[in-house]
User: What shape does this take?
Amino acid sequence: MSADSPDLSRSRAELLDAADPLAEFRTRFTVADPDLIYLDGNSLGRLPVSTAERIRTAIEDEWGRGLIRSWAAWIDLPRRVGDAIAAGVVEARPGEVLVGDSTTVNLYKLAVAALDARPERRVIVTDDDNFPTDLYVFQGLAHARKLELRIVHSDIDAGLDPAVLDAALDEDVALVSLSHVAYRSGALLDMAAVTAAAHRVGALILWDLSHSAGSVPVPLTSSGADLAVGCTYKYLNGGPGAPAFLYVRSELQEQLQQPIWGWFGQRDQFAMGGMYDPQPGIERFAVGTPPVLGLYGAEEGVRMIAEAGVLRLRGKGAALTSYLVELADAWLAPLGFTVASPRNADQRGSHVSLHHPQAWQVCQALIERGRVIPDFRTPDRLRLGLAALTPSFADVWDATDRLRRLVEAEEHLEYPGERSRVT
Amino acid sequence: MSADSPDLSRSRAELLDAADPLAEFRTRFTVADPDLIYLDGNSLGRLPVSTAERIRTAIEDEWGRGLIRSWAAWIDLPRRVGDAIAAGVVEARPGEVLVGDSTTVNLYKLAVAALDARPERRVIVTDDDNFPTDLYVFQGLAHARKLELRIVHSDIDAGLDPAVLDAALDEDVALVSLSHVAYRSGALLDMAAVTAAAHRVGALILWDLSHSAGSVPVPLTSSGADLAVGCTYKYLNGGPGAPAFLYVRSELQEQLQQPIWGWFGQRDQFAMGGMYDPQPGIERFAVGTPPVLGLYGAEEGVRMIAEAGVLRLRGKGAALTSYLVELADAWLAPLGFTVASPRNADQRGSHVSLHHPQAWQVCQALIERGRVIPDFRTPDRLRLGLAALTPSFADVWDATDRLRRLVEAEEHLEYPGERSRVT
Assistant: This one.
C-alpha cells in the first residue's frame, strides 16, 4: 500500500470501529437481523431497546392502571421533550421547543404566524430542492393568501448557492424557509449566513431541521434563527409517525400567533373558558390533544442522542460519509455511480446520495439480494443514510462491497425499471 | 315495594347485569384495580387487552425488525381505520372517513375547506355550549378571515333548542358546526333535522362527533351530513392522544380542498413531485406522516366497538344513564344535586352531569375516598360517563351509593374549593 493509494481493506474498517467512541451505543438498539445492513436511519431510525419498555409501561401502567389520572404526567410531555431537544439536540433555550403534530402541520402553523407578522410583504422564498411537503405547504399558503412563492434553484447535488439566494431577497420577502440539510443530496447550509441574509431584508426565517437534528450541530440561538420545525422519527429514533417539534425564538413568542386555535394552546385550559386566550410562551403553539405514545418514543430517542452528544455524532457522521465516498470513488465510479452529494464533509449532513442511471433497479436488488436497506430518491439516486449511532465502518465497507458485486454481476437488471408507488 | 316506588336495591343492579348482552366485553379490558369504578371512559376510554399486544407487535416486529419496509403496511392505516369506523361506528360509506391529526386540526382543515366553498358568505354559526376547542377554532378563523362568528345560546342542561338555531340561520351562513352530543350535559341533537336546517339556507354542516361516536348511532349518510370530525380516545378506546378522524361526504370530496397541503395528501406521493396535486378521494384530506402507534390503538378500539354494535351500545348506554338518573333522583336530590342533563334518554348520549354547588370538592372526595373516577366540568358539574362496554349496573349503584355517603358525611368539605389547573 503506497501513500497515494488508500487502504480499502476491511481490516481498516474494523480498526476505525475499534476506535469509535460511540460504538457501545449500537448495543442500545434492537437488532433483529444482524446480517441486514440498515442505511435508512435518516428516514426511520432504529428501535432503541429502552423504547419498547417505556411505551409498554405507558400503556399498561399509565393508561391501563392510572387511566385519566395519568394526564397529570402526560400533559407536560410536549414541553418536556421539547426542552430535552433544546438541551441536547439543537442549540436552543428552555421553553423554545415544543413537540406535537406532524412536521407539515408545524410548518404550516409557523409559516402562517410569520406571514401574519409581515402583513405588508407578499413573498415567500424557498428552493426547488426543498422537501416536497415544504413546497406543498408554501404553495397552499401562496394560493390562499395570494402571495408570490419565489422558488430559487438549488443544485440537486451541491445544494443551494448562497449567492443565488441573496439575489432573490428583497424587502417584499416576508418569509424565507429552507431545509438545513437537503433531503436528497445531504447538502448542509450555513445557518448563520443564511439567517443573516434573510434578516438583512427584514424577512423571518423558518428552518426545516428534519434531516439535520440529531446528526449535525444546529446553531439556532447563535444564528439568531427565528423559527424551525423538525422530525423525531429520523435521526432522533422516535418511532414511526412520532410527533414533530417546533422552535420559536423566545423574543418572538408573544408577537406571533399560530392560526389553529385549540384547547392545548389555551391559558388555564381546563377552566374551559369560552374565549381563546393563548398561553404565554411556547405552549401557545400547541393545538389539540398530544399523541402520548409517540411522545414517549420521541423522549427515549432524544435522551440517547443527547447522551451521545451532537459533536460526537457529527464527527462520526462525517467520518462514515467520508469513508463511503472514498469506497464509492474506488469501487463504484467504474460501475457508473457518481457521488451526488457535497464531497466536502463540512458541507453535508449524515447521508450520501449516489447517482446511477438504474438507481431504482439497483435499490431493489440491494435490498433483496444484498440485504442492505438504502432509500431510493427520485429521479435516479440511491440515498445511503449513516445515522451515527447504528451503522459501523464495517457496515459501510460491507454495504459498498455488496453493492459493487451486485452491479458488477448486473443482478439489478433483473428488477423492474418502473418504480412502484410505495418506497 | 309498591308499584310507585322504584326498586333501589343493589340486587336489582345485579339482575340488570345478568341480563346484559354486552357483559362479556368487560373481560376484554385491562382492569388493574377492581375496586375502582371508572366513570370517565367518555374522556379516556379504558385499555383493551388486545391493544397492549398489538402495539407491542408494531414496535418489536414492525418497527424493530421490519424497519422502513413496514411502511408498506403502515401507509394504509389512516384509510383502513377510517373504513372500519365507517363500517362499524358511524353511518358512512367506504372512503369517507380518514384517521390522523388531532380533532382540533381536523376541525380546522374541514372548516377552512367549507368556508372556501362558500366564499361569498360571511358567517359561521355555532353554539355557546360547544366544546371549547371548537369555539377557539372558529374564533381563529373568524379573526383571520374577517367573518362573523354567530354563537347561538344553548341551555347548558338541556342543549340547543332547534328553534334558536333556526332563527340564526340565513343566506349569509357558510358553515354551521355543532357537537352531536354536548360535552357537558350530554344533550343529543337530531342530526337529520339540524342538517336539513343548515341545508335549507345553503350552508354546509360540520359535526363534532367526539362525544357521540361509539355511544349512539351517528346517521351521517341518511342525514345528508357534509362534514364531521371525531375522537378515538374517548368511546373508541384508542388510547391517550390517539389520532382523530374526519368524514367528508363522497359527493363533496373533489369540490373541497383542505388548507394544509402536505405530502400525505399528494397523488403518487413518493414521486416527490414539485407541484401539489391532491389525491382523489378522502386521502386528499391527509397532511403529514401518520402516527402509527396511535393508529393501531384506534384500530383495536374501533374493532371492539364495531363488534359490540352501535345499537347494543346505545341500548345499554340509555339503560345505564337512566338508572343513574333514577338513583340520583332518589338519593342525591335531597343532598343538593340536580340532574344537569336531558331527563329523556332519547335526548342524551352516554353520560350524565349532576349539578352541585360544591361539585369540585365532591369530585376530589369521590376520587380519593370514594374510589370512583368521574370528571369535573366547569362551573359546577360532576360528569359521570357510562361508556357502555365497561361500567356495570352494579358499578352505577355502587358509585351513586359511595357518592351519597360521602356527601351525607360532608367529607367533600375537607377538600379545597379552589380548582387546580389540571383535571
Remarks:
- Residues 114 and 302 of chain A are 27 Å apart (CA to CA).
- DSSP finds 14 helices and 13 strands in chain A.
